[in-house]
Specification:
Length: 511
C-alpha cells in the first residue's frame, strides 16, 4: 500500500487517502487546495500583514513565547501525530520535532528584537564626517514556505517563526505525505492567539506548491529535492521572487588514522540511521583510512547489529516514511551488491514487521561509481569505503555534485580544522555528527546541487527582511555634494583630493 494515493472525488479538488508507514493502516483523507484557494490565501495574508508589521518586534516575539508554551503543553499530541504519520521513533519525534522547535522558538523570541533593531553604521573615510547611515529591517510582506516530510514540524515551525517575527505573513505548504503534522503547526499558532491570516496552512500536493510559487508572494523558502528545487528556482527567476533553497545532500564522513574509533563508530551509526536516514545532513558516505579500516568496520557492524526495530514501543530505527523512498533505498543497495559490494548487516526490508521497515544496513567494498556513493539514498544505510590516506578521502568526499555538510574524525583538532576547511560543503562538523541545523547561530545551507542561500541565525532572520539603508547629510548647506555646474576647476580639485586620499600615507589612514 502506498503512503498516500489519489481517490475519487466529487468536486474539482484532488483528494488523497493516507496510510501509516508503521502499520499500513489508514490515517484519513484530505483534499488538496487548488490555485484559486492559494490565491485567496494570499489575499487574506496581504490584508493581515500590514497591521502585524506595524507592531514592535518585541510584541511579535511574545507570540513566539506563547507558541513555545503550546508546544510544551501539546508535546504528547505532537509526538503521537508525527509517529503515526512518519514512523519516527518516539525519541526522535521528541528530539527533532519538540525539543528543537522549543529551542528555535526560544532563540528567536529572545533575540529577534536585537537582530532586527535599526543599525547606525559608521561610514568609512572622509565621507563619514558629512554623512550618517542608518539601516532598518523591513518585512518583505507575504512569504511562502514549502517543507518536506522528513521533519514536518521543526522544518515548518522554525522558518515560519522567523518569517513571522520579522513582520511577514506566512503561507505554509507541507508535504502531501505528512499533512496532519503540518496542520498541527498551524493549530499551535492559532492556539497561541496569532491573528487570523498571518499563518495559513495550505493542505495539498505538488500542484498546490507550484501554485504557491506562482502566486506572487514576496519570497519562497523551499526545502526538498534537487529536482523540485530547480523547478522552484526557475519559476522564481521568471518572476524575480527571492528564494532560498535547502536541497539534498550526500554527506561524507572522513575517519582519520588517529580517530577515536569508538566515538567515530557511534557517530557513523547515529549519523546514518537517525530519523531512519531521512536527514538531509545524514552521513551517506564513509571514507576510512586503511590503517584503521578493519577495526572501524568491526565496531560499526557490531553496533548496527544491536540496533532495535519495532512497530510497538520504543526502538532505535523507525519506519521508512514514504514507500517511494523505500524503493530508492532498495534500488541503491541492490545496485551496490550487483557491482561487487558486500552487505555486512541488514540489506533488506525487515520481514518481522508489517510496516515500511528497512533494516539498519552496513555495506563495505563499495566503489565510487555505485549509486550508494553518488546519489542521495536517504535511508539507514552505512556505505564504507577504504582509502589510502586522508588526502584520498578528501578528494573522494569532494567528488560529488552535492555539498550540504560533512564530518571529520581525528584526535588532532588542528588537522580536523585543516581538512574541514577544504571540504566543499556548506558546513562541516569535527568529531561529531552533523547537527548544524539544530544550532541556530550557525548559518545553514549548501553549495553545488545542495542549495542556494542560508537560513537560521541573525542573517537567516534578516533574510526575511529588506535591509533598507537611509543616508542623511549631517550639516546641510545650500548645495549638495557634486552639484552642477561641472567645471574644470572642480574636476582638478577632485583629482587632487583622490591623489591625497590614496596616494599619501596620511590620506590612506583617513580613507
Amino acid at each position: 500500500m502506498a503512503n498516500y494515493e489519489r481517490v475519487e472525488s466529487d468536486g474539482s479538488r484532488r483528494r488523497y487517502r493516507l496510510s501509516s508507514p508503521v502499520s499500513l493502516e489508514p490515517l484519513g483523507e484530505f483534499e488538496a487546495m487548488n490555485a484559486e484557494d492559494v490565491a485567496a490565501a494570499v489575499k487574506r495574508a496581504r490584508k493581515a500583514q500590514p497591521a502585524w508589521a506595524a507592531r514592535p518586534v518585541s510584541e511579535r516575539a511574545r507570540y513566539l513565547k506563547r507558541v513555545l508554551a503550546r508546544v510544551l503543553e501539546a508535546q504528547d499530541r505532537i509526538i503521537e501525530t508525527v509517529v503515526r504519520e512518519t514512523g519516527k521513533t518516539e525519541t526522535e519525534a521528541f528530539a527533532m520535532e519538540v525539543f528543537s522547535s522549543c529551542d528555535a522558538l526560544g532563540y528567536y523570541a529572545k533575540r529577534a528584537a536585537r537582530f532586527l533593531r535599526p543599525e547606525k553604521r559608521r561610514i568609512h573615510g572622509v565621507m563619514g564626517i558629512a554623512k550618517q547611515l542608518r539601516v532598518v529591517y523591513k518585512p518583505l510582506g507575504v512569504v511562502g514556505i514549502i517543507v518536506p516530510w522528513n521533519g514536518p514540524v521543526i522544518l515548518a515551525l522554525n522558518q515560519a517563526a522567523q518569517a513571522l517575527v520579522a513582520g511577514n505573513a506566512v503561507l505554509l505548504k507541507g508535504s502531501e505525505v505528512t499533512p496532519y503534522s503540518t496542520a498541527l503547526v498551524g493549530e499551535l499558532f492559532r492556539e497561541a492567539g496569532l491573528p487570523d491570516g498571518l499563518l495559513q496552512v495550505l493542505m495539498g500536493d505538488g500542484e498546490t506548491g507550484a501554485a504557491l510559487v506562482e502566486a506572487g508572494v514576496d519570497k519562497i523558502s523551499f526545502t526538498g529535492s534537487v529536482a523540485t528545487g530547480r523547478r522552484v528556482a526557475e519559476a522564481c527567476g521568471r518572476s524575480l521572487t527571492p528564494v532560498s533553497l535547502e536541497l539534498g545532500g550526500k554527506d561524507a564522513m572522513i575517519v582519520c588514522a588517529d580517530a577515536d574509533l569508538d566515538r567515530a563508530a557511534s557517530g557513523a551509526l547515529i549519523g546514518s540511521c537517525m530519523n531512519t536516514g531521512h536527514y538531509c545532513c545524514g552521513t551517506e558516505r564513509i571514507y576510512v583510512v586503511d590503517a584503521v579500516y578493519e577495526a572501524f568496520v568491526e565496531k560499526v557492524v557490531e553496533g548496527a547489529r544491536g540496533l532495535r526495530q519495532s512497530d510497538a514501543g520504543e526502538s532505535d530505527v523507525g519506519a521508512v516514511f514514504w514507500d517511494r523512498q523505500l524503493e530508492i533505498i532498495e534500488s541503491h543497495v541492490r545496485d551496490a551488491v550487483e557491482r561487487g559490494a558486500r552487505v555486512r548487516v541488514g540489506g533488506a526490508r525487515n520481514p518481522d514487521l508489517r510496516g515500511q521497515y528497512f533494516q539498519p544496513t552496513v555495506v563495505t567494498d563499495v566503489t565510487h561509481d555505485m549509486q550508494l556513493m553518488r546519489e542521495e539514498t536517504f535511508g539507514p544505510v552505512l556505505a564504507i569505503m577504504r582509502v589510502d590516506d586522508e588526502e584520498e578521502a578528501l578528494r573522494l568526499a569532494n567528488d560529488s555534485r552535492y555539498g550540504l555538510s560533512g564530518n571529520v574524525w581525528t584526535r588532532d583538532k588542528a588537522r580536523g580544522f585543516a581538512l574541514a576547511e577544504r571540504i566543499e560543503t556548506g558546513g562541516v562538523c569535527i568529531n561529531d555528527m552533523t547537527l548544524t541545523y539544530g544550532v541556530p547561530e550557525a548559518p545553514f545551507g549548501g553549495v553545488k546541487d545542495s542549495g542556494v542561500g542560508q537560513v537560521n541565525g541573525r542573517d537567516g532572520l534578516r533574510g526575511y527582511c529588506h535591509a533598507h539603508p537611509m543616508l542623511v547629510d549631517r550639516f546641510g548647506g545650500k548645495q549638495v555634494q557634486g552639484a552642477y555646474p561641472y567645471t574644470e576647476k572642480g574636476l582638478a580639485g577632485m583629482k587632487k583630493f583622490a591623489k591625497f586620499l590614496w596616494g599619501s600615507r596620511l590620506g590612506r589612514l583617513l580613507s
